[in-house]
Amino acid sequence: MTDAISGSSAQGATIRPEEAAHFGGLASEWWDPKGSSAMLHKLNPVRLAFLREAVDLHWAGDVASVRPLAGKAALDVGCGAGLLCEPLARLGAEVTGVDAAPENTAAAAAHAEAAGLDIRYMPGELGALGLGQFDLVTAMEVIEHVADKPAFVAQLAARLAPGGLMVLSTPNRTLASRTLLVGAAETLGMVPRGTHHWDDFLTPDELAELLAEAGLIMGEPKGIAFSPTKGLHLSDDLSLNFIATARRA
């Protein structure tokens, strides 16, 4: 296992206070599609397209249904101000969102209430919240920000119900991601400075290894690529960012 993922904290804590403070400081702008989270607004439909197909395949659901998650409980870890939680609720799930920054969960709760959505938001360390298990567990663009990656994946696995589905996305650790996601994106103001730390990115093989150690099998990853004509889109090119499912072995 590489240095990027081998380190473990003594208590298994996953939250980095400086990361929580960084993202908590962006809470007021999270729902502004032209604000500091503009890139997430562009990324969200791509992630949702992958997730919807994964849900339909995993539970052999009706692809025409507008509520394929009806009767299922979903947990979004690193939920920010709820950009993924709200679509999950509209897809029929009973949704819980967890985030390291209380500013984010407060903003998320206010936005959900204004939208008439019943979503439970909780700040804090996932492993300390005493949550039960969920049919669907998601962690999008989160694992690259945590202090103890093996502990974090173990916490995610503990929350996944038997027969459940997990979906994760994260930047790949490649020269392309270093140049574009860290260098160009932050220099050009596409994402706030300090958002990404390239050494913390994982390759697909490294993520698969972490999941295997937690008793999970990773599905075939799909790339999230960018082109001037398509914008962000699902692709076979994994060099910038990738998204994958996981299930119990």
Automatic annotation (TrEMBL):
Q: Which pathway or pathways does this protein act in?
A: Cofactor biosynthesis; ubiquinone biosynthesis
Q: Does the keyword RNA-binding apply?
A: no
Pfam families recorded for this chain? Methyltransf_23
What keywords appear on the UniProt entry? Methyltransferase, S-adenosyl-L-methionine, Transferase, Ubiquinone biosynthesis
Q: Return the similarity comment.
A: Belongs to the methyltransferase superfamily. UbiG/COQ3 family.
Its biological purpose is as follows: O-methyltransferase that catalyzes the 2 O-methylation steps in the ubiquinone biosynthetic pathway.
What is the protein name for this chain?
Ubiquinone biosynthesis O-methyltransferase
User: Which species is the source of this protein?
Assistant: Aurantiacibacter xanthus
